[in-house]
Design brief:
With 120 residues, the chain is of the alpha+beta class. It contains two helices and seven strands, in the order αβββββββα.
Length: 120
């Protein structure tokens, strides 16, 4: 190799190294948008927020306002009476409150198009 080729290769390597040093760091796409520590949970107007539901064959748990509760436990003065995949039902003084896991999402059955029904 000639000196000129070696200088050119060294300059190219330095340029590539500087370009990668200025590159933006990659973020984890699975990371929640905002980390919430227990007790620091944002609360809705009602003050009670369902954050997660954990269901296994032997038990049903929910995380409400950062605390893990099961059937029969209390949240404030309300008793947990039902836990499903998408909601938790609380009862206090004969009144029922339903906490939705995704409060802004209304689930609707999909309609089958007429083309799908005829295609065979």
């Amino acid at each position: 190799m000639t000196t000129r080729t070696m200088v050119w290769m060294a300059a190219a390597a330095a340029t590539l190294a500087m370009a990668s040093a200025r590159a933006q760091a990659l973020t984890d796409p699975t990371r929640p948008p905002q980390a919430i520590a227990p007790g620091d949970a944002p609360q809705e107007a009602g003050g009670t927020q369902l954050q997660s539901v954990l269901i296994s064959p032997r038990r049903r748990l929910a995380i409400i306002n950062g605390a893990m509760v099961s059937l029969g436990d209390t949240v404030g003065e309300a008793k947990v009476v039902k836990i499903t995949e998408t909601e938790v039902v609380l009862r206090k003084d004969g009144e029922t409150e339903v906490l939705k896991l995704f409060p802004g999402v209304d689930k609707q059955a999909a309609r089958r198009s007429s083309r799908q029904g005829r295609a065979k």
